[in-house]
Amino acid sequence: MLEAIGPSAWYGLRVIELRQTEDFDPGLVVYGKTRAPGEIFLYEQPEHEATRLRDFMRFDVLLHELGHHLLQHRARKVGNIQRRSDHERFADAFAAQWKPVVQAALNTLPSTAR
């Protein structure tokens, strides 16, 4: 996935970590989070519909969080920053732009490597 996007999007990224769900507000669903500098956390989700959920986490949540990482890195932000609506729009647009590119790149791989 990261190779399909290119190093300009993941430069400075130190870790993408899969984590167990934390004690978030019960009314809030959290799929992922970007922490500065260079950390992306993806949180476990219920196992039903595993294939659809796996693709959602890869093609929507991870790409969205990479958009936040890119925005923070370009602005040289350190530490946790307040998310504003323009940050969310940028991350959504980044994910929408790169989703078809990443999906196409993954489709060229043997099924065992996806």
> What level of helicity do the residues show?
40-55%
Q: Helix-strand pattern, N to C?
A: HHEEEHH
Query: Oligomeric status of the shown chains?
Result: single chain
DSSP summary, beta strand count = 3
Q: Please compute the radius of gyration using only Cα atoms.
A: 14 Å
Task: Output the structural class.
Answer: alpha+beta
Report on this model:
It contains 4 helices and 3 strands, in the order ααβββαα. It has helices spanning 2-5, 7-10, 50-74, 85-107, and strands at 15-19, 32-35, 39-43. The chain is globular.
Question: Keywords, please?
Answer:
114 residues; alpha+beta; 4 helices
Write the layout of secondary structure elements.
Blueprint: H1 2-5, H2 7-10, E1 15-19, E2 32-35, E3 39-43, H3 50-74, H4 85-107
Parallel strand pairs: 1-3
Antiparallel strand pairs: 2-3
